[in-house]
Amino acid sequence: MTNYDQLVHLLATRSAKYGQFTLASGVQSNLYIDARITTMSPEGIALIGPLALEALQQSSWNPDSVGGLTLGADPISYSIAYASASTKSPLRAFTVRKQIKTHGTGKLIEGPFDPTDRVAIVEDVITTGSSALQAIHTVAAAGATITGVIALIDREEGGRLKIEDAGYPVITLVTATQIIANMKLS
Fold it and tell me: What is the domain partition of the chain in residue ranges?
């Protein structure tokens, strides 16, 4: 089984569930994908970082850093940064807060973010695209150049198109269709 197949299997067997769920977007769904069950596990981190880094290296984006809206993007961003540590172009990871911090420095973007960076926005699960677009808006307002969005999972419910229509290319590692197919096999 390839690393990619292992990742799809983990997402299908650990992160995906059937039932009645209200998603973060407010949409009702009979499929819930809690990517964090996989992205925060040792096996998930070991698989996601190198696979996402490879996808970024195959793109023409050449980002300096990766990050997205907390909490979903955080473990993915960190695993990509870790996987890049021994390459010629290591990537820094950052976190975009949902609200401005009311204490300390009052930052909205945490970590070694540089406003001159070329940034790949990270998303765990694209449904409507709103979280990625919120991160894009925040990071662009801070001065960075957005090269695109890399997502672990595309639920294939229109979010990817919404991001692309806003002018940002999207790379997704796994689709909901692939996860569902592997749930049936599991």
Answer: 3-185
